[in-house]
Structure formats: structure tokens, C-alpha cells
Design a protein that fits this description.
- It comes from Spirosoma endophyticum.
- It is a single chain.
- The chain has one domain: NAD(P)-binding Rossmann-like Domain (Rossmann fold, 3-Layer(aba) Sandwich), CATH 3.40.50.720.
- Helix content is about 45%, strand content about 15%.
- It has nine helices and seven strands; from the N terminus they run H-E-H-E-H-E-H-E-H-E-H-E-H-H-H-E.
- The structure holds NADP nicotinamide-adenine-dinucleotide phosphate.
- NADP nicotinamide-adenine-dinucleotide phosphate binds next to helix 2, strand 2, helix 5 and helix 7.
Length: about 270
């Protein structure tokens, strides 16, 4: 892409995807790149460890920057937003996707406070305060640009409602993210900035690699109505349609991407 093409493209919308260099976040990034977004990709690994992923996204024709930083850190969140302001000068869509599983699955009668803090600070506190920062900036952008379009999308999990007693901290973090979605949807309603929750089921990524055999058996036995693993691409399609404004009058809603797993059955 030459300079004039790049400067032309840089009038397009910008999305920040936390945890966007692999797994579900990367699936989202691919769809947003194809939809004409420029991307700020966040993660904890150094940039040289994710350069292949960033280059593949650039090959789809978008401008991509990497914002390394731990979303659980106040300082890192400030730096992420400053880097986007310096490079793009705007932000239309925040996708809170970064997340961790407990390092060790332990029964809630035995699990540690350290693990609780690790999971909650990453999966909930990070997303909550990044949303606060992005929302305040979107409100300012709206005063400067009459046709500004912005939205916030939280990637939660079926664990927001499905109890797994060997990873209670993860379930609580996702249930909290679900309420955070409703809170910010309520607060940002007057600005017409929708906030959505996308709730995936069992998705094939590094996070689930260690439990592949267990989930293979569950899927074969009908855990979900659709008898296959979910893919990052499935979540990417849903998030991209939200980010492009396909559900403008649905703020605060949950979009299920779980193959029907959570439909109660008798
Ligand atoms: P993954 O393959 O393990 O990728 C996690 C991503 O989050 C990585 O890019 C990682 O960065 C980033 N990340 C982790 N901690 C971070 C931190 N403190 N600050 C910034 N970035 C951080 O996981 P995934 O399966 O794609 O999961 C993505 C999201 O979907 C998570 O919120 C997860 O809870 C949710 N989810 C997953 C499933 C599933 O079955 N896989 C189901 C429902 C919901 P690096 O790449 O730099 O390490």
C-alpha cells in the first residue's frame, strides 16, 4: 500500500482489540480488518513475538499498531490509550477480549485468593476500567464529530451463567463482565454508544488446548446442539456485525455464540 492509499484509509474506523494477536481476539481482528477497520492490537507478549500475526492483518489492507500492556495495570491502560491517540487520533470500537483462565483449576473449597485476584484483575477490572477510559474518549469524540459512531463489545463466556466449581474465579469474572455491560450500556445510552456482550461457548484456542480430550467427549455427547467446537471465526463474525452497526437498537444485549449449548433441555 502506498502513502496516499494509507492516508486515504486512515479516515476509516479504528478498533482496539485486547488480546487480539491470537485465539478469539485474532479471529475478531481478521473480520474487522476485512470490514475496513484499522486496528490497535493489545496483548502482553512483546511485539516481536506477535509480528507474524500483525503482518498477516496488515496484508488484509489495514493499518495495525501493537499496544503491548497488561490490561490489569492502570499504567498500561493509560499507555494503550495514549498510543492510540498518538497514532490514530480516534477510537470507534473497544473490544474487551483479553482474558485468562486460572493457572490451575481448583475446587472452590480449596482455590486461592491469589488466583482470584489474578483472574478478576485481568478479566474484569481491566475490561471495566478500559471501558471507562474508552467511553470518556468516545463522548469527547462525539462532541467533535457529529456523525461519530462508537460501541463497546465485551467478550464474556457461557461461564457468566454456567457454574464450574473448579474455576469459580473465572465464572465470577465473566458474570461481573456481564453486569459491567449492562452498567455501561445504561450510562452511555444518552450518548447512543451501544455496549454489547458476546458470550462464547467452547471455542478452539490455546485457552482450551489443555482440555481438548475432555471437551471432545462432551461435544460428541451433545454438550452443544451443534456438535462441533466453536471457532474464533464464529466469534469474529458476530463481533464484526456488532462493530459495523448491524444491531444499533440493541444496547446491553447478550449475543450467544455457543452452538446452542446453554439452551435448557429435558
Ligand atoms: P487465548 O487463546 O488464551 O488468548 C488470550 C489473549 O488474551 C492473548 O492474546 C493474550 O495475550 C491476552 N491476554 C491475556 N492476559 C492479558 C493481559 N493481562 N493483558 C492483555 N492481554 C492479555 O484465549 P481465547 O480462548 O482466545 O480467549 C479470549 C477471550 O474469550 C477470553 O476473555 C476468554 O475468557 C473468552 N472465552 C474463551 C472461550 C474458549 O473456549 N476459548 C470461551 C468463552 C470465552 P498474549 O497473546 O500476548 O499472551
Amino acid at each position: 500500500m502506498n502513502n496516499s492509499e494509507r492516508s486515504h484509509r486512515r479516515t476509516g474506523p479504528v478498533a482496539l482489540i485486547t488480546g487480539g494477536s491470537r485465539g478469539i481476539g485474532y479471529g475478531i481482528a481478521e473480520h474487522l480488518a476485512d470490514a475496513g477497520f484499522d486496528l490497535a492490537i493489545n496483548g502482553v507478549r512483546p511485539e516481536d513475538a506477535v509480528s507474524d500475526a500483525l503482518d498477516k492483518l496488515r496484508q488484509r489492507g489495514c493499518d495495525v499498531i501493537y499496544c503491548q500492556g497488561d490490561v490489569a495495570s492502570t499504567e498500561a491502560r493509560v499507555e494503550i490509550m495514549q498510543r492510540i491517540k498518538a497514532h490514530f487520533g480516534r477510537l470507534n470500537v473497544l473490544i474487551n477480549n483479553a482474558g485468562v483462565a486460572p493457572k490451575e483449576r481448583r475446587d472452590i473449597l480449596d482455590a486461592t485468593e491469589e488466583s482470584f485476584q489474578y483472574v478478576l484483575s485481568t478479566n474484569l477490572q481491566g475490561a471495566y476500567f478500559l471501558t471507562q477510559a474508552a467511553a470518556n474518549w468516545m463522548i469527547v469524540q462525539q462532541t467533535e464529530q457529529v456523525d461519530f459512531w462508537g460501541c463497546i463489545i465485551n467478550v464474556s463466556s457461557v461461564s457468566a451463567t454456567v457454574a464450574s466449581v473448579n474455576r469459580g474465579e473465572y465464572c465470577i469474572a465473566k458474570a461481573g463482565l456481564s453486569m459491567a455491560t449492562q452498567l455501561f450500556a445504561t450510562r452511555l445510552g444518552e450518548y447512543n454508544i451501544p455496549v454489547y456482550e458476546v458470550r462464547p461457548g467452547i471455542i478452539k484456542t490455546d485457552m482450551t488446548a489443555g482440555v481438548t480430550a475432555r471437551y471432545n467427549a462432551l461435544i460428541d455427547n451433545g454438550l452443544a446442539l451443534q456438535r462441533r467446537w466453536g471457532l474464533p471465526d464464529d466469534v469474529g463474525k458476530a463481533v464484526a456485525s456488532l462493530a459495523q452497526g448491524a444491531f444499533p437498537y440493541s444496547t446491553g444485549q447478550v449475543i450467544m455464540v455457543d452452538g446452542g449449548m446453554t439452551i435448557p433441555r429435558l
